Amino acid sequence: MTSVQGTPVDIPTEDGVADAYLVHPGDGTPRPAVLLYQDAFGLRPHLRSMADRLAEAGYTVLVPNVFYRHGRAPLFDLPEFIDPAARPEIFEKIMPVMQSLTPELAMRDAGAYLRWLADRPEVADGPVALTGYCMGARLALLTAGTYPDRVAAAAGFHGGRLATDTPDSPHLVAEHITAELYFGHADQDPSLPAEQIELLATTLTEAGVRHRYEVYEGAQHGFTQADTASYSPEGDERHWAALLDLLKRTF
Of 189, 211, 227, 239, which is the active-site residue? Predict the structure, then answer.
């Protein structure tokens, strides 16, 4: 197993400074970059451990606190094991913060993250890959369509509201995407009903986007997040296999 080095970093953006976590193999060799987009619970130990696992596989990984406008992570007082049913007040605090991150702001930030990665000595030249979880899957899809020349691959897992009837729905960027995409959908996910899964797939196909999606049976929204009540060990390992396969093909 590759030894890795992880460190907190600060990334200048047009609206301030985003705190983030950067991790890379410890041998000093520039590696392909992966931008990992958080779920709603934010930058925390579990996401750092996910980034570490990707770095062990040979990548330089950046996990930004996309809620930095509201403060440095951790923003929320989270228990070690997150069960929103037992602690409904968690989402009462998270939802306004999440809703304040508009697609316009998020994509302005994405440009800052991508520029920062391009200047890092730990990052190999060339485009990057993205992976996102829950709300992060939306951000990954939007980033792939907003910065097509910088993104070679993007994955999204248990994403919600990926193909809605709103004018800023993520699926509407499909015509600009040049990356290969993979989605692992949860079939027990009210935020992504079957009609949205179908609309996303149809839109990507019509736009000529290389993509594949799988519906993970019995999986809940959040199935990759081991520190939450939604976690599925089987779904998580399936996610890792699919993600690493995508990265291997890309780089």
Answer: 189
* 211 catalytically annotated: no
Q: How would you classify residue 43: left for phi > 0, otherwise alpha for psi between -120 and 50, otherwise beta?
A: beta
Global pTM value? 0.98
Interval 30-83: pLDDT, tens: 999 999 999 999 999 999 999 999 999 999 999 999 999 999 999 998 988 998
| pLDDT tens sequence across 136-149 | 999 999 999 999 99
Active site residue 134: yes
Is 236 marked active-site?
no
SS (H, E, C) 104-133: HHHHHHHHHHHHHHHCCCCECCCCEEEEEE
Choosing from 39, 134, 171, 211, the catalytic residue is 134
The CA-atom distances, in angstroms, between 170 and each of 104, 177, 184, 251 are: 11, 11, 16, 25
Annotated active-site residue in 24, 158, 221, 239: 221
Spell out a b/e string for 77-107, using b for 16 or more CB atoms within 10 Å of the CB, else e: ebeeebebeeeeebeeebeebbeebebeebb
